[in-house]
From TrEMBL:
Keywords: Glycosyltransferase, Transferase. This is Glycosyltransferase. It comes from Raphanus sativus (Radish). GO terms for molecular function: UDP-glucosyltransferase activity. PANTHER family: GLYCOSYLTRANSFERASE (PTHR48047), SCOPOLETIN GLUCOSYLTRANSFERASE-LIKE (PTHR48047:SF45). CDD domains: GT1_Gtf-like (cd03784). Its EC number is 2.4.1.-. InterPro entries: UDP_glucos_trans (IPR002213), UDP_glycos_trans_CS (IPR035595). Gene3D superfamilies: Glycogen Phosphorylase B. It comes from the Eukaryota.
Length: 481
């Protein structure tokens, strides 16, 4: 079907990490389901991951107009390992130069600039939604009068949090890195400590890069947010009145995937048979299983994994635990001897990738031990599942405060900072206590009620007349030429 030149055309350019590609794919599907043409720009290897999902979406709705445009990303020439086109490649193992290579990966994406300009010149989309980690995209789009909208991947709360931290620098005025302080101007009287602040020093390479990110957002045509107003109203209002000229909340994007195939294949192919996984859950009582996953980037040392394993066993609760390891066969020093056999029937360990939304949406799932990555947080909210918050890095320590202090649908393991040394390890006793607390503790019923209420709001927001449905309408009106 030839593309209709009058059709509203949106170009998406996601950072090459699952936490950014998954919501972008959902956004492209959403815009196309509203009659737009969606183009996703990516690299050769990532195009294979995305094309599978686009085919699934098109099988379900043949009228969708979605395509992929591929740009070169010569990894070796850029000083990266061969085939390193996704953050996954660098974060699966805890090798020594991991942090150096991750920074090099982020900075190397500026290589795309010239290719993007050529693509914009020939395709002239009505709007470019480019990832926050591509600060050069604002200028590139300006050359061809294409409005550039920023997609961060996370919600208003962390965006406002970062804004107040940068403006007031409260963490620079405390005597020690564990002295608590309130975040100035941020609604809700949020208390934090310096060691949990992810504020890169402006003198460092990453600090300079993040300043460029902020500048490019100020100069952009606005921000599209994977969130819904009823989740964080005070922060949506603060962001739109104080931080950014224009923002549109169009999420939760995950709830648009209602069918089995869409939910089963989000991100990568699951390491378990999805049907078997659902059958296992069908055999469990409602709200009796705790799902444990730390996203697509985090990677724990074996000593920490052993504590998680021992804590889950001691809790005597049902669990599904996702471990970011290659398939069984690697030396599994992270697994206590005989633990898998002893917990057979009530425990499932998934090595690699889990069908996360399928699991969260199942009625047997009653608790979610999460690192508070924004997509996971939102998927847990949309599924009405109370959480155990265990942030690891990025803006996850901020997201944790939303869950525990504002929404009050979660219990914290009190992670102090990004796990650096063994001293930061979360003990098996803490894991055991948190799992019991979230499933059946004193406050559990109250938390579950609040979580279920939020889930209703999440699903209503994307329905016709809902807050996200309406914000998407105004986004489309704003940028349809
Ligand atoms: P999520 O945002 O939960 O976590 P990360 O992968 O860590 O990605 C940014 O994304 C966050 O703001 C950052 O804090 C950082 C980053 N998934 C799955 O389906 N199976 C698995 O086994 C593991 C993950 C999916 C999950 C979610 C995504 C992970 C925006 O967190 O459902 O959609 O992968 O994203």
């Amino acid at each position: 079907m030839g593309s209709n030149p009058q059709r509203f055309h949106v170009m998406f350019f996601p950072f090459m990490g699952h936490g950014h590609m998954i919501p972008t794919l959902d956004m492209a599907n959403l815009l196309s389901s509203r009659g737009a043409k969606s183009t996703i720009v990516t690299t050769p290897l990532n195009s294979k991951i995305l094309q599978k999902h686009i085919d699934t979406f098109k099988n379900l709705n043949p009228s969708l107009e979605m395509e992929i445009q591929i740009l070169d990303f010569p990894c070796v020439q850029l000083g990266l390992p061969e085939g390193c086109e996704n953050l996954d490649f660098l974060t699966l193992n805890n090798n020594d130069d991991r942090e150096v290579m991750i920074l090099k990966f982020f900075l190397s994406t500026s290589f795309f600039k010239d290719q993007l300009e050529k693509l914009l010149e020939t395709t002239r989309p009505d709007c470019l939604i480019a990832d926050m980690f591509f600060p050069w995209a604002t200028k590139a789009a300006e050359k061809f009068n294409v409005p550039r909208v920023v997609f961060h991947g996370f919600g208003y709360f962390p965006l406002c949090f970062e804004y107040c931290i940068k403006l007031h620098k409260p963490h620079k005025r405390v005597a020690s890195n564990c002295e608590p302080f309130v975040i100035p101007d941020l609604p809700g009287n949020i208390v934090m400590t310096q060691e949990q602040i992810n504020d890169r020093d402006e003198g460092t390479e990453i600090g300079k890069f993040m300043m460029e990110v902020t500048e490019s957002e100020v100069k952009s045509s606005g921000v599209v947010v994977n969130s819904f107003y009823e989740l964080e109203p005070d922060y949506a209002d603060f962001y739109k009145s104080v931080v950014a000229k224009r923002a549109w909340n169009i999420g939760p994007l995950s709830v648009l995937n209602r069918g089995f195939e869409e939910k089963a294949e989000r991100g990568k192919k699951a390491s378990v048979d999805e049907v078997e996984c659902l059958k296992w859950l069908d055999s469990k009582e409602p709200n009796s299983v705790v799902y444990v996953s730390f996203g697509s980037v985090a990677n724990f040392k074996n000593e920490q994994l052993i504590e998680i394993a021992a804590g889950l066993e001691a809790s005597s609760k049902n669990f599904i635990w996702v471990v970011r390891k290659n398939k069984a066969g690697d030396n599994e020093e992270w697994l206590p001897e005989g633990m898998e056999e002893r917990t057979k029937g009530r425990g499932m360990i998934i090595r690699g990738w889990a069908p996360q939304v399928l699991i969260l949406d199942h009625q047997a799932t009653g608790g979610f031990v999460t690192h508070c990555g924004w997509n996971s947080l939102l998927e847990g909210v949309a599924a009405g599942v109370p959480m155990v918050t265990w942030p690891v890095g990025a803006e996850q320590f901020y997201n944790e405060k939303l869950v525990t202090q504002v929404l009050r649908t979660g219990v914290t393991v009190e992670a102090k900072r990004e796990v650096k040394g063994l001293g930061d390890r979360i003990s098996r006793e803490t894991v055991d206590k948190a799992v019991r607390e979230v499933l059946a503790g004193e406050e559990a019923e109250e938390r579950r009620k609040r979580a279920k209420n939020l889930a209703e709001n999440a699903n209503a927001a994307v329905e016709e007349g809902g807050s996200s449905f309406n914000d998407l309408n105004s986004f489309i009106e704003e940028f349809s030429s």
